[in-house]
Write a structure and sequence with these properties.
Layout (H helix, E strand, L loop, with lengths): L8 H13 L4 H12 E3 L5 E3 L6 E16 L2 E3 H8 L4 H9 L3 E5 L6 E5 L1 E16 L7 H4 L1 H8 L8 H10 L4 H24 L6 H24 L10 H26 L2 H4 L18 H19 L27 E2 L2 H8 L40 H5 L20 E2 L2 H25 L4 H18 L28 H5 L2 H11 L5 H22 L8 H28 L9 H10 L12 H18 L4 H24 L1
Parallel strand pairs: 8-9
Antiparallel strand pairs: 1-2, 3-7, 4-6, 5-6
Helix pairs in contact: 1-2, 8-9, 8-10, 9-10, 15-18, 15-21, 18-19, 19-20, 20-21, 22-23
Length: 649
């Protein structure tokens, strides 16, 4: 880049001149400069970051001479007569020496000649030199900030290699960059129009004034780029300089947009309820960043609930030490959600990890502790965590919520809905349907599917199925090209599908085939699990006898599933996939003596969402944003109060 002249002059000055003055030596200084100056983006390119905080600016006065061509053109005949007195040889000599420049007017086809003049302009200004100081390595989040910002503004920096080559050779701006610059200019102008309505207000002027001036300057720079192909400070036009230029404007636009939005609204209406979107705050890991700070506050709140008293230093400090709820206390008992959520927000193991997908034990995909062993004597059962042992384990999740007294890996509860209905059952039911329509029933697949659908509709009607399948009309509802069959559907539809599918299978199965008998028995076990959950609907945990039955039924179903899957593996057919969710289903069954799976399933969350939607509809119309949310909270609190009063009667 030094040889091509693509670096700004002051950076070259730092590299070649300032480095010689450095106490740590030329090489060390230059190494720090390069490491601080360049940042690698998502696309593998390196960006010049001359405005980062790693640099301290200091200024030196300098004199700079700028040479510019200034010329006045006239037709060739007039030039010959007025300046060369008709001497064509003298004029030709001036052309050959470069003292004259010849240009042809495209419209009139006339040849014009002009003199070359040199204007020497003395400029007094500031040479921006920068001293490098050692800092910590830039984080990955910082490295991707610019790319995320461009995506948010829907600006796409697209520069083909051919365009880049032409730009390097000729200095011409490619059309793709011109379109992006025009889009950026329009965005700046729209924001300035909004800002002009606020900048006249004395109260709001300090908020929007600086951004208004910055964007005005950006528009001028964009106009120069579009008209003359020039960048600020005569920077060399190349990929890096263009990325920095457009990226800087993107930052200015985003910043000024936020300032305008803040100036338009009142403080309450601009505040977002953080507890309503805290899962979007994942910046940093489990021990740093915004999410960590939020969880730290949440931990403090849970600690207060466990104490049952108002804490000192809170908003209502005058009530410190008094009861929060007339002597009642509350503890964090369970964290519920799906597996992706646990991994992303709580830092639990990835459920697809071969080295250990489970939060409650140390099972693995292969080896002696394999979770694919569903027998009662499986070795992984001896590796289940104890609370104290898990808290002392260095490899545990660092989520601060799990440092509360009594909290451990067992505080995180697997969800029956996502583990079974949207996991194990989808693969089992999809595979059974696939075997039926493609291997067992006599006609072509589409005809067989129509016959299955007719049977299922009749079954749903006769047995008053709470949530019948409605759209099982295409093979693509369970057949996936090159993948294992998987039934597509809502969780409630899958939950109530087992009995109907069992009846359909029993009608078409071959009673003389061991494989068909195993599939039938597996489906019976599946249906029995759901019958037990329905039977013990009001129980916090299953009675001892029921818990043992529930656990044996789940293990029996999974052992049969393993045998059936092995059969199709031997046949070379993708059917009856077994994922780590089968292990988590077995974990839930083993816990049934302490906790009914229904207590922590996410159906409750979906039911709650439906209730909140109804309350929200009544609170939105005719109210500001801040009024809507506060009214929603008041109405919901009143509804809970009335509900609890009714239960107490």
């Amino acid at each position: 880049m030094l040889q091509s002249g693509s670096l700004p002059d002051h950076i070259i000055h730092m590299y070649q001149v300032e480095s010689k003055k450095a106490k740590e030596g030329v090489r060390n200084y230059q190494t720090k400069l390069i490491n601080s100056l360049f940042q690698k983006g998502d696309d593998g390119t390196y960006r010049l970051m001359t405005d980062k905080h790693e640099f301290e600016q200091y200024r030196k006065v300098f004199h700079q001479t700028i040479a510019k061509d200034k010329a006045e053109a006239m037709p060739k005949t007039l030039m010959l007569a007025s300046h060369f007195h008709g001497n064509e040889q003298l004029m030709k000599r001036a052309l050959d020496n470069g003292e004259l420049i010849s240009k042809v007017d495209p419209s009139s086809k006339l040849e014009y000649l002009q003199f070359r003049k040199l204007s020497s302009i003395e400029v007094r200004g500031n040479e921006e030199a920068e001293k490098v100081k050692g800092t910590k390595k830039m984080s990955q989040d910082q490295a991707h900030t610019m790319a995320s910002l461009m995506s948010k503004l829907k600006w796409k920096f697209s520069l083909a290699k051919a365009d880049e080559k032409v730009m390097d050779e000729t200095g011409d701006i490619p059309e793709s960059i011109k379109k992006l610059a025009a889009k950026a200019k329009d965005a700046c102008e729209r924001l300035l129009e909004d800002g002009s309505k606020l900048v006249t207000s004395k109260d709001l002027q300090p908020v929007v004034k600086e951004g208004y001036k910055t964007l005005s300057c950006d528009i001028t720079n964009l106009q120069n780029l579009l008209m003359f192909g020039e960048l600020p400070e005569r920077a060399t036009v190349n990929r890096v300089s263009l990325e920095n230029f457009i990226g800087g404007i993107a930052q200015d636009v985003e910043k000024y947009n936020l300032e305008i939005q803040a100036a338009k609204g009142t403080t309450p209406s601009m505040l977002i309820w953080v507890w309503g979107f805290f899962d979007k705050l994942k910046i940093g890991d489990q021990t740093t960043g915004t999410l960590f700070e939020f969880y730290t506050v949440l931990k403090w709140s849970f600690s207060c609930l466990a104490e049952g008293r108002y804490p000192a230093g809170s908003v209502e400090a005058n009530r410190a030490g008094s009861f929060l709820a007339d002597g009642f206390k509350a503890v964090l008992w369970a964290l519920t959600g799906d597996l992706d959520y646990f991994h992303a927000m709580l830092g639990t193991p990835n459920y697809s990890a071969a080295g250990g997908p489970c939060m409650h034990c140390r099972c693995t995909l292969t080896g002696p502790n394999t979770w694919t062993d569903f027998r009662d004597e499986a070795l992984w059962r001896t590796s289940r965590w104890q609370g104290e042992t898990w808290r002392a384990w260095e490899g545990r999740t660092q989520c601060v919520l799990l440092t509360l007294p009594g909290a451990s890996c067992w505080t995180i509860a697997y969800d029956w809905v996502h583990v079974k209905y949207l996991g194990v059952d989808q693969y089992i039911f999809g595979s059974v349907l696939s075997v039926l329509v493609s291997m067992v029933m006599p006609n072509d697949e589409n005809t067989n599917l129509e016959n299955c659908l007719a049977f299922l509709k009749d079954y749903f009607k006769r047995h008053s199925t709470p949530t019948p399948f409605r759209y099982l009309t295409k093979l693509t509802m369970f057949v996936r090209t090159g993948k294992y069959p998987k039934l597509r559907g809502k969780d409630s539809e899958v939950r109530h599908f087992g009995p109907a599918l069992l009846a359909l299978w029993n009608m078409h199965m071959n009673q003389n085939l061991a494989l068909h008998k195993r599939i039938s028995l597996m489906l019976k076990h599946n249906v029995h699990l759901e019958e037990m959950i329905t039977l013990h609907n009001e129980d916090f945990s299953f009675p001892a006898g029921a818990a043992e039955d529930f656990q044996k039924t789940a293990s029996g179903m999974l052992v049969l599933l393993n045998q059936i899957a092995d059969h199709f593996v031997d046949e070379g057919v993708k059917c009856f996939d077994i994922t780590s969710k089968t292990h988590m289903l077995q974990e839930l069954a083993m816990l049934s003596r302490s906790m009914n799976p229904k207590v922590v399933w996410c159906f409750m969350g979906e039911d709650q969402m439906q209730r909140m939607q109804q309350v929200a509809k009544a609170c939105v119309r005719g109210n500001r944003v801040d009024k809507q949310t506060s009214k929603l909270a008041r109405h919901y609190r009143l509804g809970l109060h009335l509900h609890f009063l009714q239960l107490a009667l």
